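Example 9 (inverse folding). The structure is encoded as follows.
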């Protein structure tokens, strides 16, 4: 089995949806399919391009006729005494080789045919007359052709490169190959194309009650619908899925089945059933016994709360509920985006849309509710009601998941709400969907029950121009663009005011950037949210080479609508990391937050204080001190010299980088 260096995963019990996505993309987001593979065009439909495609020659390569007509030399037709009657010297169809244009003559050219040497314009057939017609009604060779209109250079001519200029990047890495895209590649003469490798998934359904569709249904049995649903969903997400035999809720049999799944070395083992808290829910315990490193167990969503996530060696593990509605919901917001990310899609999430409820939603949401809904062209959303008759029928015809935020009360008919459009994958930036899901964990974040939108998707500034420090050069002829970077690693840098934490962050930005690892930063500012004011920390971050800087404080998070109070970074961290990933960053350095459960470096000026500012329990793994010998470090926490930036950066890499 493949092995890789493990990152330190933080094991959590139940998490909210934003935290779950953050953990999945941090610890399971580095599938190795970016290497790519060459496949014939006939097999490339629905695959994701692994590298930019550059046109090595123009299309068309030479001037061609844009319509049926007569090729002429326009200069010879100008002036009062210029001839209007020319002798037809020949004809050429698309694919033919035209004769040179004789003086005082013309050549009939069909649409798409190359222009004869010496010609620079085409007079349309309907603007000419001739005396003798050939068998097809056109002029016979040697016939005199009278032009009813003069021509100027370029009339009705396709110049070289009109379809595709030489050196143009015609398709970018990360593009989903559609029939028009394949046609474009064929236009360039490509027989094959390099695409991302498909992640492999092993699907296993558990449960004593499961019966294969088509077989007689015994008393107490139910047909296994999750397997067919998950297999189709994995294929739609760009993965290759294989189905393993169903397994009963029996410990030894389940252990043998999961071990057999691992022998196939899939990127993901995806199970349904057995992940809740009942006596027959054995999947989490068996994975732990096999040595899996748990990421979380249960997600605060309804339906879909029973989810087990872990990894074992190079294989990711996701256990979903056996309930079809819960299984399908959790797949849409967790497994589906992860698989599409692995497959290479730069925008793996459903598009958020503001909708209007056609029916009231009764009851309060103790956690985020995801309601299957049918959204019409005008934005009207009809949500399926929990436990209503025919809920599976409604799920089958739904095209969206309606979000009712945690802690929100009933919503009246006509109220505004947010939904994720499952039929519009990748139409919006990843930041929009991730920010929406992160905000949904906060009471009242998605709407006020009326028509006013409280949450506004972040309108972030674009990534810096290519000529700014730390930015990659623009793609030119012969260049290819690398696939999107792995999900940015996060490290917090804390410390008392005046101890030099901003100085260390500046030096780390410079060190990581010089090593080809672009950096984004988050700066906490307790007295407002200045961004690039000279002398302020955010300004210093950008001056040091940070590709993206976000400032948060009492005025809100800079690129979101301001909210009362000092925003909790935990709720927004997934969206911040998504934006950093879109900007091409490898790191997200968080400065000024002290009570977050993040890996944290404490900056210490031993002349001002001997001990760290925060407790070890809040992620402290390293102290960077002015005088390491004088630092009173907690047990097990190493101390490095604050000015030894290379050593500090190496320690951060060892602790924070995913495997």
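The amino acid assigned to each position is listed next.
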């Amino acid at each position: 089995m493949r092995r890789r260096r493990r990152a330190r995963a933080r094991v959590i019990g139940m998490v909210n949806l934003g935290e779950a996505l953050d953990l999945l993309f941090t610890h399971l987001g580095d599938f190795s399919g970016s290497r790519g593979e060459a496949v014939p065009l006939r097999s490339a439909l629905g695959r994701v391009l692994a590298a930019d495609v550059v046109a090595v020659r123009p299309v068309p390569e030479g001037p061609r006729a844009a319509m049926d007509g007569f090729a002429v030399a326009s200069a010879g037709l100008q002036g009062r005494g210029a001839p209007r009657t020319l002798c037809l010297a020949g004809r050429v169809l698309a694919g033919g080789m035209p004769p040179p244009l004789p003086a005082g003559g013309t050549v009939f050219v069909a649409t798409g045919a190359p222009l004869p040497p010496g010609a620079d314009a085409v007079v349309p057939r309907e603007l000419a007359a001739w005396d003798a017609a050939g068998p097809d009604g056109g002029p016979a060779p040697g016939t005199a052709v009278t032009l009813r209109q003069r021509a100027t250079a370029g009339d009705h001519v396709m110049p070289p490169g009109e379809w595709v200029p030489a050196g143009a990047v015609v398709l970018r890495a990360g593009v989903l190959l559609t029939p028009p895209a394949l046609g474009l590649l064929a236009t360039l003469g490509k027989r094959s194309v390099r695409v991302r490798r498909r992640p492999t998934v092993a699907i296993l359904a558990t449960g004593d009650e499961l019966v294969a569709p088509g077989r007689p249904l015994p008393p107490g049995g139910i047909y296994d619908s999750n397997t067919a649903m998950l297999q189709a969903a994995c294929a739609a997400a760009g993965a290759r899925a294989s189905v393993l035999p169903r397994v009963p809720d029996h410990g030894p049999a389940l252990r043998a089945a999961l071990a057999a799944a691992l022998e196939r070395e899939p990127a993901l083992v995806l199970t349904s059933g057995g992940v809740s808290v009942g006596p027959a829910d054995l999947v989490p315990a068996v994975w732990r016994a096999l040595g899996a490193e748990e990421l979380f167990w249960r997600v605060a969503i309804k339906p879909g709360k029973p989810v087990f996530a872990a990894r074992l060696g190079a294989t990711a593990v996701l256990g979903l509920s056996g309930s079809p509605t819960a299984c399908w919901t959790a797949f849409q917001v967790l497994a589906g985006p992860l698989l599409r990310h692995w497959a290479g899609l730069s925008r793996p999430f459903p598009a958020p849309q503001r909708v209007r409820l056609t029916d009231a939603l009764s009851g309060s949401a103790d956690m985020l509710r995801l309601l299957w809904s049918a959204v019409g062209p005008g934005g009207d959303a009809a949500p399926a009601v929990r436990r209503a008759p025919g809920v599976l029928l409604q799920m089958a015809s739904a095209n969206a998941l309606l979000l009712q935020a945690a802690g929100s009360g009933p919503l009246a008919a006509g109220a505004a709400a947010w939904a994720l459009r499952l039929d519009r994958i990748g139409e919006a930036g990843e930041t929009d969907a991730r920010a929406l899901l992160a905000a949904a964990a906060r009471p009242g974040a998605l709407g006020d029950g009326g028509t006013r939108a409280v949450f506004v998707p972040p309108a972030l500034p674009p990534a810096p121009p290519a000529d700014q420090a730390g930015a990659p050069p623009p793609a030119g002829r012969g260049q290819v663009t690398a696939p999107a970077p792995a999900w940015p690693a996060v490290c917090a840098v804390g410390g008392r005011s005046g101890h030099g934490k901003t100085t260390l962050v500046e030096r780390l930005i410079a060190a990581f950037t010089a090593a080809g690892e672009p950096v984004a930063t988050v700066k906490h500012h307790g007295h407002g949210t200045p961004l690039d004011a000279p002398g302020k920390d955010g300004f210093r971050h950008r001056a040091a080479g940070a590709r993206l800087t976000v400032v948060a404080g009492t005025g809100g998070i800079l690129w979101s609508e301001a909210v009362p109070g000092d925003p909790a970074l935990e709720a927004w961290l997934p969206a911040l990391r998504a934006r950093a990933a879109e900007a091409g960053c490898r790191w997200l350095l968080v400065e000024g937050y002290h009570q977050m459960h993040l890996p944290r470096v404490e900056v210490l000026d031993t002349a001002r204080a001997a001990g760290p500012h925060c407790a070890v329990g809040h992620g402290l793994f390293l102290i960077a001190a002015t005088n390491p010998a004088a630092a009173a470090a907690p047990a097990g926490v190493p101390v490095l010299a604050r000015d030894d930036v290379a050593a500090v950066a190496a320690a951060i890499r060892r602790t924070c980088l995913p495997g």
